[in-house]
């Protein structure tokens, strides 16, 4: 259960500036210990949802289940799109993303907004593919291209 085949990579970073606003794509962002990402609406909250991550490999699956050819990462409202490492294996574990240390806190279940974003059935298309919520243990800068590795 603790062995992973290899590390992963950050493919995309997005911020939610406010409720019901479009995601803003960025190349880098500051992660604050115990809080969140600078410019994201969840910054300063409980910290359990300081960063949300989704598996890049799940985007085509969600698109197919929702009846789309392609889904832009911002549509799913997660902060980081990560490839190459199974995010489900990081729940309850600490992991490093570039210089930042995160701890997987819980599954990032879809919300009812996915019905609007993906169309009827969008919520169910995302079930089991929503990603991971994480707490920021050690802050720093997150960058597109950063390596993701379990600690």
Shape: globular
The assigned structural class equals mainly beta
Q: Note the total helix count.
A: 3
In which range does the helix fraction lie?
A: 10-25%
The number of domains: 1
Described by strand count, sense and barrel closure, the largest sheet is: 7 strands, mixed, barrel
SSE arrangement, N to C: EEEEHEEEHHEEE
- CATH superfamily (homologous) name: PK beta-barrel domain-like
How does CATH name the architecture? Beta Barrel
* CATH fold annotation: M1 Pyruvate Kinase, Domain 3
Strand tally = 10
Low-pLDDT stretches: none
CATH class: Mainly Beta
Strand content: 25-35%
Outline the structure in words:
- This protein is mostly beta strands and 151 residues long.
- The protein has one domain (8-141): M1 Pyruvate Kinase, Domain 3, CATH 2.40.33.20.
- It has 3 helices and 10 strands, in the order E-E-E-E-H-E-E-E-H-H-E-E-E.
- The radius of gyration is 14 Å and the shape is globular.
